[in-house]
Write a structure and sequence with these properties.
The complex is a heterotrimer of chains A (398), B (638) and C (157).
Chain A: H1 19-24, H2 29-39, H3 51-60, E1 67-72, H4 81-88, H5 90-104, E2 108-113, H6 118-133, E3 150-155, H7 165-172, E4 196-200, H8 201-213, H9 215-219, E5 229-236, E6 242-247, H10 252-258, E7 264-269, E8 275-278, E9 296-301, H11 306-320, H12 326-343, H13 349-365, H14 369-373, H15 375-384, H16 386-391
Parallel strand pairs in A: 1-2, 1-4, 2-3, 5-9
Antiparallel strand pairs in A: 5-6, 7-8, 7-9
Helix pairs in contact in A: 2-3, 4-5, 5-8, 11-12, 11-15, 12-13, 13-15
Chain B: E1 30-35, E2 38-43, H1 48-54, E3 78-81, E4 88-89, E5 100-102, H2 106-122, H3 137-144, E6 169-171, H4 181-189, E7 196-198, E8 205-207, H5 224-228, E9 234-236, H6 240-248, E10 253-258, H7 260-265, H8 279-289, E11 293-296, H9 297-320, E12 330-331, H10 336-345, H11 359-375, E13 382-388, H12 392-396, E14 412-415, H13 416-425, H14 447-450, H15 457-471, H16 475-478, E15 493-499, E16 525-532, H17 534-545, E17 555-559, H18 577-593, H19 603-611, H20 620-626
Parallel strand pairs in B: 1-5, 10-11, 10-13, 12-17, 13-14, 16-17
Antiparallel strand pairs in B: 1-2, 3-4, 3-5, 6-9, 7-8, 15-16
Helix pairs in contact in B: 9-11, 9-15
Chain C: H1 3-20, H2 27-38, H3 43-53, H4 57-66, E1 78-83, H5 86-104, E2 117-122, E3 134-136, E4 139-141, H6 146-155
Parallel strand pairs in C: 1-2
Antiparallel strand pairs in C: 1-3, 3-4
Chain lengths: 398, 638, 157
């Protein structure tokens, strides 16, 4: 696997394969958890749950059988940082999983790799094989007697919703990817009913660095509530799309400048399930305090039709909803119909307002994160671009 | 890596794995919470929904059903839990912390309305033209929440074709709201596995294997899905138009037999509380509607005891005395859902099924032969209707083997619900009817036949007779009031051992030609078992396959439906554990009120053997008319 | 399906069950292997998997129909999927789509007469920085222009 010339303060900082694993086996589990707590690392998938808390819960769970799951079902439109990590920095991800296995006391780690990334499968499996040869996986890892851990890769088969952790577990168990009821949470009742931690690819990568350099070091990056750095997947209308490592707290306008975006009208933060931010708010900072995101940044310039963008998002959700709960299954269809009505100028403002209210119901009453976040674009685009959408006399840009 | 349990229905559809402390008074066994600012204490692990119910607070539900595991998919039961960003489905939230719940906030009410509105927008059809009008849970919710405007539109054309292929169950998926109760019923409760959700997103629908018609997949016709469907998406195949036509045709002689379970439940369709048998009122009503004769299925239930009991004796004699290979344990065969279940899943055991027909089919064969001759009516002019608690009976009467009279033995199987509607249509208020009697020549029947309706009933009826036949003593000597209590109750599987003792009576005349004496039964302990619901049947069958304790049994009663016939797929909706219990009480009470409690005391049956089935139980005539054979169907779906 | 084919299929599935295990969690890997080889999962295979995993055939169908990359009906030898999600859309997916449809003489969702190619749309492939993206079987092609797309198609057999 080729490493591109990337640089960054945390994730893309120098790291030697296996070094965190070799270090961690000489540490006490509590000390690793202490470091993690000190780092204030939050889950990098987007939900932002503190990693130390999750791991502590699983570590404390009274079960001899526990699982580590790496969520590599990167399906959020506009997100591709996991692709880069897995292709170019597998050592960070897999070492992070081994560390999790050590801390939590699990014997098996499972990478749930989205079906669309099947082309990586062979090289990743080869990489795992080299780790086994170097005693970074298998029995008595890094010479630590009794520390056995292995990693397997399981493929998805084309379902966005499987990025939701309980849907992912259902899929691993051979079922439809339908989110579970919570509680109980996976930390208690996860894969095969056993305590399971499901973490994002980037989270594991961050852990490897934290083990080497310490929680305090990690904490020095970013802001008070959003520590460390974040990988941003930047796409859309800009000169240099790609993955960028930036400290949390970076302003949207700063990012736009960095990637060479011109005449920008809107930035979709957090993918299709995120929010659309208009020009007037480009001074907002990326981070849990303000504009939280799993890393997807999509840039739209002045020539783009925001209703067209919204329609594309809603079509996406109608197809990708798992269909089990009423608000998400039917709600998204209704929102899409609403967009089509606007497109054809066959709407009433009264009905659009009803749909916005429906969107708010979906946000609170849907069973999982998909339906809870799918109305975000609908609400934010119609709100932030109402001038363009409703008052342009039907002559939208293309 | 996983145990067998995990392989079944998806985990998301399984009950929550929260262990409830057995004794709530144990420290930490209960938890104090707040519901609508009122402090209450509930056992740890109680769901929010249960906690609300316990405290008199009503929360609307749709996908929730007491018989089924948690789904949490319809979302109408959402409530606010303080500190949580989103609303929580109260049916799926086990309480393990001192939470504060609010069940009626603006957000909650708005969400419920919107959700009901969404369901209505995709629910095809109009209430006034639906058979569930007035008994539809979606309709009730809409009424309760004032959702009367189709805020998000309403489908104008059906999305799916109605599947009318099955003799028993009709599926109109355009009315489905995807609550998945039928899926959980079929896969979890019954372990039949016909229905599942297919596709995803807006295309999600409940369907069969490769969307095949129901007739072509492994449906056992138990109709339990119908009983749990909140809307009109699932219904029984209703023959009442044909029956009306027959009644209105002066050339036709229309007879009807009524089974005990519909009689114990039909009151519910007339607004009465569950647990009142309206047997005699029903007799009057049926005559008034225009049925020419009303017969009691219990008569042939008594006959079944003779035939099936004799068959068991013969099998035991073969095994114990003649040492010939014979299929044991003998399985009951009166539940057509169970029979088809076995034909599909355990075809290698069809020889264990009693060849005796079900009471319905025995009656059918007798009506068009014995009765036709006696009454001087041409069998082709007789239309034979059976009121059953069951949708599988509709399939059973259409089995090609069931033409032994030379005609279709039973023309129509009618469910309790369908009969209730016919009665209402005729302008009759059933509970107000004067009491009437059954018609001869099949007038009275025994209480043993009656209790066939409850799980364990067939076994109890059989034991009441077998005990007396073999020991020569009265059943009452061994079991107070002839109530064999170990065989009763709603445990999924019951297992009972009955030592036959050392002292035997003479062999009764009616089977004297088959066995010389009872000496060969000395020291034998009769081992019997009872299972209701095919999921429990599956457990027993798997145990038998593995050579477990049930393979040592002599006789096993299987009923496809939970609770037995009284919980059948043709019974009034809703059917809940509590309602099943009340129906059972009604049946056992009616049994106790009768003078005649044992099948072999039924004079009509005794006369049948004297006049018609002259070569006795399991003789040639009875074999031709009252016994049948089965088909090894297997699992493969063509 | 001929008896011979059925026997071969049973044998194949038995091997897969041996490889992945007979627990329900082995279901997706088994289905994926069959899909990869046959480009679809035949009826008979579904029932055999159900039998060996001791679940119901409808549960298999339910799972297959849930996942976009599994199907119950035969498709072409090669499955060509064009990303339809927003950044690929903005980067000119429409022109690529039109060019492919013209060239092959079929619409998206259809299969060429010679069974060589099935055309489908797919949601986000994770190549948003290099759109439009095309997935041919499991291989991904970034920055596909109409011309490049036709070139790619011409190379597959």
């Amino acid at each position: 696997m080729e490493k591109k010339n990337r640089s960054g303060a945390v994730i893309f900082s120098p790291y030697v394969k296996g070094e965190a694993v070799k270090k961690v086996v000489s540490m006490k589990r509590e000390d690793v958890l202490f470091d993690l707590r000190e780092s204030k690392l939050k889950g990098r998938g987007g939900a932002g749950f503190p990693t130390a808390t999750k791991w502590t819960l699983v570590a404390a769970a009274a079960s001899t059988e526990k699982y580590i799951v790496c969520n590599a079902d990167e399906g959020e439109p506009g997100t591709f940082k996991d692709r880069v990590l897995l292709l170019e920095y597998p050592e960070l991800v897999f070492d992070g999983m081994v560390i999790a296995g050590y801390v939590i006391g699990a014997k098996l780690g499972i990478v749930y790799l989205r079906g669309e990334y099947e082309y990586m499968l062979k090289s990743l499996e080869d990489y795992l094989e080299t780790m086994r040869k170097e005693n970074l996986l298998g029995k008595d890892i890094a010479g630590k007697t009794g520390f056995d851990f292995d990693i397997i890769i399981r493929l998805g088969s084309g379902a966005y919703v499987c990025g939701e952790e309980t849907a992912l577990i259902e899929s691993l168990e051979g079922n439809r990817g339908e989110a579970r009821n919570r509680p109980p949470y996976p930390v208690n009742t996860g894969f095969m009913g056993k305590p399971t931690t499901v973490n994002n690819v980037e989270t594991f990568a961050a852990v490897s660095h934290i083990v080497i350099k310490g929680g305090a070091w990690y904490c020095n990056h970013g802001t008070d509530k959003s520590t460390g750095s974040k990988l941003f997947s930047v796409s859309g209308d800009c000169e240099k799309p790609g993955v960028y490592e930036l400290p949390w707290g970076t302003k949207i306008s700063e990012l736009l400048e960095l990637v060479g975006a011109k005449n920008t009208k809107a930035v979709q933060v957090g993918g299709a399930s995120g929010f659309c931010i208009p020009k007037t708010q480009f001074d907002r900072a990326l981070g849990y305090e303000d504009a939280a995101t799993g890393g997807s940044i999509m840039i739209f310039n002045e020539s783009r039709n925001m209703l067209h963008v919204l329609k594309n998002f809603m079509e996406f959700f109608v197809e990708e909803s798992c269909g089990q709960c009423t608000p998400c299954r039917i709600g998204n269809t209704k929102l899409l119909e609403g967009v089509e009505m606007i497109e054809k100028s066959e709407f009433t403002f009264g009905y659009i307002n009803k749909l916005k209210e429906l969107g708010k119901t979906m946000q609170v009453a849907s069973k999982c994160g998909l339906g809870q976040s799918s109305p975000n674009s609908f609400i934010s685009i119609l709100e932030n671009f109402k001038e363009e959408i409703f008052n342009s006399g039907g002559s939208h840009g293309k | 890596m996983e145990n067998k349990e995990n392989r079944r229905a998806p985990v998301s559809q399984k009950p929550l794995v929260i262990e409830k402390p057995k004794d709530p008074s144990y420290i930490g066994g209960t938890i104090s919470i707040e519901i609508n600012e009122k402090k209450v204490t509930v056992p740890l692990g109680t769901t929010i929904l249960e906690a609300c119910k316990m405290n008199g607070i009503s929360v609307p539900t749709l996908c929730h059903h007491e018989d089924l595991c948690v789904a949490g998919v319809c979302r109408v039961c959402v409530v606010e839990v303080e500190g949580m960003r989103t609303l929580q489905a109260s049916c799926a939230y086990p309480i393990t912390a001192p939470i504060k719940i609010k069940t009626s906030t603006p957000t909650v009410r708005k969400a419920r309305r919107n959700i009901i509105d969404l369901m209505l927008s995709e629910h095809y059809g109009e209430c006034y033209s639906c058979f569930r009008n007035g008994k539809c849970e979606l309709q009730n919710l809409a009424k309760e929440y004032g959702v009367d405007n189709y805020n998000f539109g309403h489908v104008e054309a059906p999305r799916y074709e109605v599947d009318e292929s099955s003799y028993s169950v009709i599926r109109d998926m355009s009315k489905c709201v995807l609550c998945k109760r039928c899926v959980r019923t079929c896969i979890d409760l019954q372990e039949v596995g016909v229905l599942e959700a297919v596709e995803r997103g807006h295309n999600t629908r409940i369907s069969t294997f490769l969307d095949k018609p129901l007739l072509d997949v492994i449906c056992i016709n138990c109709g339990q899905c119908i009983n749990r469907c909140p809307t009109g998406a699932l219904r029984a195949n209703d023959p009442s138009d044909e029956i009306w036509a027959a009644i209105d045709d002066p050339k036709k002689h229309v007879v009807i037999q009524t089974a005990p379970s519909p009689r114990a439940a039909i009151c519910e369709e007339f607004g009465m509380e569950a647990g009142h048998s309206l047997t005699k009122e029903l007799n009057t009503a049926l005559h008034r509607i225009g049925f020419d004769k009303v017969f009691d299925t219990n008569t042939t239930a008594d006959l079944t005891i003779f035939e099936e009991g004799t068959e068991l004796v013969l099998r035991l004699y073969k095994a114990l005395v003649q040492k010939e290979p014979v299929a044991l344990p003998q399985f009951t065969s009166c539940s057509p859902g169970w029979v088809k279940f076995l034909e599909h899943y355990y075809p290698e055991y069809i020889d264990n099924l009693s060849t005796a027909k079900s009471p319905q089919q025995m009656f059918g064969a007798l009506i068009k032969t014995f009765y036709a001759e006696k009454a001087g009516i041409k069998p082709e002019d007789i239309v034979s209707v059976a009121v059953m608690p069951c949708s599988a009976k509709k399939f059973e009467c259409n089995r090609p083997e069931m033409n032994d009279s030379g005609y279709k033995d039973v023309d129509y199987g009618l469910t309790t619900r369908e009969l209730a509607r016919m009665i209402k249509e005729a302008g009759i208020n059933l509970p107000e009817m004067p009491k009437g009697d059954f018609d001869s020549p099949f007038g009275e029947a025994s209480g043993a036949g009656l209790i066939f309706g409850a799980t364990g009933g067939v076994m109890e009826a059989a034991i009441r007779s077998i005990y007396e036949f073999v020991t020569g003593n009265k059943t009452e000597d061994a079991f107070a009031n002839a109530n064999i209590l170990p065989l009763r109750g709603f445990d999924g599987i019951k297992y009972v051992e009955l030592p036959l003792g050392e002292k035997f009576g003479p062999v009764p005349d009616v089977i004297k030609h088959l066995v010389p004496n009872w000496d060969w039964l000395k020291g034998v302990t009769l081992k019997v078992a009872i299972a209701h619901g095919t999921a429990n049947a599956k457990k027993i069958m798997d145990d038998i396959k593995a050579g477990g304790k049930f393979s040592e049994c002599h006789f096993i009663e299987f009923m496809a439906c939970p609770g037995g016939c009284l919980g059948g797929g043709g019974q009034p909706i809703p059917t809940t554990p509590e309602i099943r219990m009340k129906r059972a009480q009604a049946i056992y009470a009616e049994d106790e009120s009768l003078e005649m409690r044992k099948s072999h005391d039924n004079p009509n049956v005794v006369r049948l053997y004297e006049e018609f089935l002259t070569d006795g139980p399991c003789g040639h005539i009875s074999h031709k008319l009252l016994h049948t054979h089965y088909i090894k169907r297997g699992r493969y779906i063509a | 399906m001929l008896l011979l084919e059925k026997n071969a299929m049973t044998e194949e599935i038995e091997l897969l069950v041996k490889k992945h295990g007979n627990s329900r969690s082995a279901l997706l890997p088994i289905l994926q292997d069959i899909q990869r080889k046959h480009k679809y999962i035949p009826d008979f295979a579904q029932q055999e998997i159900a039998r060996l995993l001791d679940i119901h055939p409808v549960e298999i169908y339910s799972v297959i129909s849930f996942y976009a990359f599994l199907n119950t009906h035969p498709k072409g030898r090669n499955i060509v999927r064009l990303c339809q999600t927003i950044t690929c859309d903005l980067a000119g997916k429409e022109n690529v789509a039109k060019a492919i449809e013209r060239e092959l003489g079929i619409k998206f969702g259809e299969t060429t007469k010679d069974n060589r190619i099935t055309l489908e749309y797919v949601n986000c492939l994770g190549m948003c920085d290099q759109g439009p993206a095309l997935l041919v079987n499991e291989r991904v092609y970034p920055k596909v222009s109409p011309e490049k797309a036709i070139q790619i198609l011409n190379e597959i057999k």
